[in-house]
Every structure is written in C-alpha cells, then in structure tokens.
Specification:
The protein has helices spanning 5-30, 34-38, 40-50, 53-57, 82-105, 112-131, 135-153, 160-191, 196-200, 212-226, 235-238, 244-250, 258-270, 274-297, 301-322, 325-356, 372-386, 392-406, 412-434, 453-471, 473-489, 506-523, 525-539, 543-565, 570-591, 609-627, 631-651, 655-677, 689-714, 721-734, 739-747, 749-770, and strands spanning 62-69, 74-80, 775-778, 784-787. With 803 residues, it is an all-alpha fold. It has a domain at 273-523. The strands form two sheets. A two-stranded antiparallel ribbon has the order 1-2. Strand 3 (775-778) and strand 4 form a beta hairpin. It is elongated. It comes from Rhodobium orientis. Keywords: Antiport, Cell membrane, Ion transport, Membrane, Transmembrane, Transmembrane helix, Transport.
Length: 803
Amino acid sequence: MGLSEHDLFLLAVLSPFAAAAVAPFVTRVLGHRAGWLLALVPLGIFALIASHIGEVAHGGNTVVAYDWVPSYGIKLSYYLDGLSSLFAMLVSGIGVFIVIYSGGYLKGHRYLGRFLAFMLLFMGSMLGVVLADNLITLFIYWELTSITSFLLIGFDNNREASRRAALQALLVTGAGGLSLLAAFLLISSTTGITEMSVLNASGDILRDSALYLPIFILVLGGAFTKSAQFPMHFWLPNAMEAPTPVSAYLHSATMVKAGVYLLMRMHPSLGGTELWTTVLPIFGGVTLIAGTLLAVRQTDLKLMLAYTTVASLGLLVMLTGTSIDAAITGAVLYLFAHSLFKGGLFMVAGTIDHEAGTRDITRLGGLGRAMPITFFAAALAGLSMSGLPPFIGFIAKEVLYDGTFGATTDNWAVTATAVAGNALMLVIAAAVALKPFTGEKVETPKHAHEGPASLWLGPLTLSLIGLGTALFAHTTGEYLIGPMAAAISGGTAEVELHLIPAHFGAPVVLSMVTVALGIAVFLMLDTARGIVAGVLRAIGWGPDRGFDQVVRLIIRMAIVITRVIQPGRMQTYMLVVFLFTALALFVPLFAYGEMPEWPEWPALSGSNFYEWAIIAIAVLGVGAVLIASTRLNAIVSLGIQGFAVALIFMLFGAPDLSFTQFMVETLSVVILALVMTRLDLGNHGHRPLPAMIRDGTVAVAVGVGLGLLLLSVTQWPFDARLSEFFTANSRAIAHGRNIVNVIIVDFRGLDTLGEIAVVMTTGLAILALIRIRTRKVEQYDGTKREVRIARTYSGERWGGDVS
C-alpha cells in the first residue's frame, strides 16, 4: 500500500531525526564523505516543499494533522502556506550545503559523526518550528532548537569559552521558551483555539481580549530572546565559539530567525495595534543600530558577520512592527536575501580560517589569487549584502525603503534608521568580502590555498541564487515573496518585483544615500573602529557582563534559600510540610465568596453506642501518643488509631479494607519499632512551651482541615460513572470478579507498579539511614570521642567563592 501525500509529508518532516540516528554509523564507514550522502535528506525535503510552490502561490495551503494527546487538544499538526514554505525551503535548501560543508570543514575530526547528528537534529527541530500548526507542538520544536543549538555551540566542550557560550544561549533562549509557553497557554485558555492557522483566521479575537497585553509581552519574550533583540542580543555573537558550520546555519539562516518567524506568523492575530507598531519598531531599530556599530568595532570575520546578523534581525523586527503591507513585503524579501548572502559569507569566513589559519581581518590580505573560487563567491554575496545591483539584496533594499518612506512619510524615523543600518552593513560587507582577498599578500599562519569542493560549493551556489532570483525578479515575487507576504498580512499581497526601478523616486534616492554613507565609512574603517571601541570602553558595563552578574546572583540566592529551607533538621521539614498542608486546606474555604464554604455538620443522632466506643478508643490513642514518655511508647500508641479505623471499616461493610488496614498498621508499628531500636529511644527532649503551642496549632489545623475537606466531599452529589464502568468491565475485560483487585492490578497496573517502586525506594533510603553508625575516631591528643556523619551546606561545601 502506497503512502498518502500526508504520510509522505510527515515522513519528510521527521526524516532528519532518523538521519541523525544513523549519521555516526554512516560517518564511521564513509568518513568526511558522509556529508554528501546525508545531504540527500534535506535535499528530498526541499524537493517536497518546492513541489507545492505553485499551489501555495495561488492561495492554497496544506494541513497535515495527527491526534497526539486528544484529551488536551494537542495534535501533531503541520501547516504549509506561503510563510512556512519559504522558511522550510531555506532551512532544507541551505541545510543541503551546510551538511556537505560540515564534512569538509571537520574532515578528520574524531567526532564528525556526532556533529552531523546534532546538525540534523537541529534541522528537524527548525523544520518543526516553521511548519507546526498546533501551539504545543510548535513549543516543543521551539525548545528542541534550544537544546540542539546548545549541543552544537558547545561542541568543542574542552574550551571554557564554548561551554559558557552554549550555557548562555540555552539559558537565554530557554527562558524565552518558558515565556512563549505561558503565552500559548493563555491563548488556548482565552480563545479555546490550539491551532495557529485557526487563530490567525479568527480576526480580532486576541486584539479584543482583556489578556492581550500579557499575551503580547510573553510572545515578545520568546521572540526577542530567540532572535537576539536588544538587550538580549549578547548571546548570538558569543555563540560564534561554535564551529563555523553552526554559525552559518543556526545563526544566519535558521534558528535566530525563529523569533522573526513567530512575529510574522502571529501578525494577523496580534499585529496592527498601537502597542505592536510602537514596541517592535523601537526595539528593532535599537537592535539594528547597536548591531551594526558593534560589528564595526570587530576584526574577527565571524564576529563582524554575527553582529550584522543581530542588526539584520533588528531590521526585520522593525519592518514587521510597522504593520504596513509594503514594509512587510520588504521584510520578507530582505529575510530571503539575508539567508542567502549571510549563509554564504559565514561559510567563506570558515573557509578562510580553515585554509589560512586565521579569521583576523588585520592579518589577512591578497588571498584572491590563492582562493579564486572563494573570492568570487564572497564578492557576489558581499555585493548582495551591500544592496547593490544586480542582486536580490538590492531589490530588498529598494522594496523596504518604498515600504517605509514611500507608503507614508510618518515613518521617517524608521526610514532613517534603516538607511543608517544598511549603510553600516555595506561597510561590513565590503570589509569581509574584499579586505581578505585584495591588496598585498599577507603571511598567514597556514599556507593559504583553495579548499575542496565541499567548502566552496555552498557559498558559490547561494551567491549565484542571490543573483538569479534578482534577474528573474518577477518570478521570485510571484512564487516566493508574494505568498509569504500575504500570509503575514493575513490577506492577499500583490508583489511586483523589478530589478530596474520603475521610476526615479524616494527609494532610489535613499539607496544612493545609503551607498554614499557606506563608502565614506568604509574608507575610514580603522578610524570608525577606534571611535566605536572608545565609546564602548567609556560605557564599560554591557548586557554580556550583566548576564554573568545575574547568574552569580541567582547562585548566591540559591545558597541562601537552601540554607534556610534545608537546615538539616527533620522537625523543620515536617513543620513546613504540615503548615503548607493546613494552608492548602483552609485557604479555599475562605477564597470563594464573602463567607467561607463550610460544610454542613452531619447528623449523628442515629449512631450506635459501639461506634461511639470506637471513636473514644481512637481519641484515647491520641492522648496516649501525646503523653508517652518514650518514643517507643508513642509508636506503639500510634497504632491504636489505625486499629480503630480498621474496626470502622469492618462495621460499615468493607472487610477487605479492614483487613488491609489491620495489616498495614501492624507492619507499620513493627517496622517503625525495628528502626527505632537502631536509634535513640530515650525520653523525649524537653521542648519549650512556644514550640509546643506552635506544633500543636499546626497539627490541629491539619486535622480540622482534613475533616472539613472530607465532609465537603461527602456532601457533593455522588457521581457513579466510574463505579459503573468498573462494575461493567472488570469481568468482561480483566476477567476478575473482585473489582478492587482488578482496579489495582489491571486498570491501574502502572500506578501500582509506581507505588511499589516508591515504597521500595523509601525502604532502601531508610536502610541506608539506619546503617549510619556512630563511629569513634582517634584524636591527636590520644582522646576518643563519638562523632556523627553530617553534611553541611556551608560556603566551603560549595567551594567558597560562588562567582
């Protein structure tokens, strides 16, 4: 039986995870050539998504859904429209060249197979993010990208910088993920909708909600941390500690755009409000300028590109925040162009480092003759990043200027910010693409030469695609950019792209200003670098340093809290547990309405004398426990209440429960007595009166609270559906006549197994405790004394300095 289209789609989306499982074994057999074979997986995914381009371009979409946790409305659902299809093609298409590049870049590395497995796991996670329709499914994939990026950033785990960068990225994006989960839970509880496509088609349901503000803030928490918006931008440049294939894939074309994707995806349901059009342009604009200025200061090729990635993400957020259709079209086109030229330039930077032995731009020059193919690819990508014709970056710049200034002059601040940011990005593009290859030959740590095909195939292909999509601009707009812009705006978008501007207007003038400013700064790059560095030194403190301070503060707070709530005294632990139990019992009684919901007192007039006698025995047992002079007497007296309860079960027609209660109480007394024989069974230590009053009050509160709770429960109408189910099915399904036994062994078999495991673990813990003996140690002065083994939570225990 053949696979349906939906099954084939699901198989394609999940295939990177399967490929990750076999990647180490394939690498063991094929070595670095495994990258060429494993690249067939993203190539197949790209082909599948591309086959739907025509349908998507004409307004069609594909929904694939499988029930996952139907009781909670969670589906394994995927949605393919203009937005998700372009993102998925970028993830899979660029992924083809990244997997090939990884094999060449890490040739001979002992953990190449593991690296390829991590990369494929990330690919599958990112595909899930951009294709998932169900909110919880999207969140799970979202967190998977954080986990897999942690593994990739910290791949070189022998270096402290790599470990720190990986942990920093995980903490920042993980915190954003929790924020996003809270937003999704609020959305589903407010609207009852769990599918993103349905939510976006529901009009103003979120914008009119009283919870719009918290939902908006929580969504921004997830998007801004993932897409490195100021002031959470610091983790992305630090993540450049990862191998270059990671930088080229995660931090240019895929993961860091997940936040932008989220904002674009939720624009139909959240966008267009005054809050949206104010907050997003401000944060995006600040991120754009901060990222480009920080890029000017750098001399490391990867860091220069990383900070311009931060800037580009800010530009995308700023444009999306305007909620202007033309500006959104510019954002889409720039996102597409950025993925092509930035992915290619990152691979160029990695190739230079791989073949020349350094990424320091001040130690590079004249590599054009030694690495002609790499130089050609870098030049093409650099021209596109600079926004010069005839490349897709040029068209993107023209469209975004038309969307900000051309649509309405009220957005002059957005336009001015975009011009300044694009001018500085031209400076970095020229520096990365030209300086290492032109000028006099500089002696490098390694003899520079052209790398193998696996290293230059990716950047060359992506650069040529940037040229080809510009030359065929009309087709690009019709099949790629238009459908994506329509999905973001929530309607239809007529996109007409032209390589040559239709008229000489504001966008052309702004482009000329951008190029002029960029060339001027590039000619004085060293001076500009010094100025920016001086300003940053004067400022001193920054978010990266602040992150370390926050982590140290959290550790110190954790130690203080641990010392308070974990003092090593069992009495304190028991007091806290019972105190909060009492609060949990009494607070609901007062929380609803003006008067507490006290249960009605049951009628006791029909009780028999022997029932009162049993209750009296239980009360006498309590008194015996309280007045017991030794712990052993208290333990034995404690069994009186259990036997009294067993008698009540017997009187009210539950002999099986009565027998169980008798056995449990007997065993409990015996086991406790055996344990206590290994401990001090002397008289109780004297306790001051305030402590006795405190403990007695808490004990009475718990007892009264439980009594009131049980009275409340018994006064509710009895729901017999569960009893009827077990009565009807115990014999038919489980083939047992004793319903209680069938429930324990069959219907709740896993619960019973878990309870057995808990009891066994508790028993082992008790055994370990009673085996701790008092031992004698010899002192230097010849005397002997008894000491007990103890653990402390002092500063010395945790290494003293926690910074």
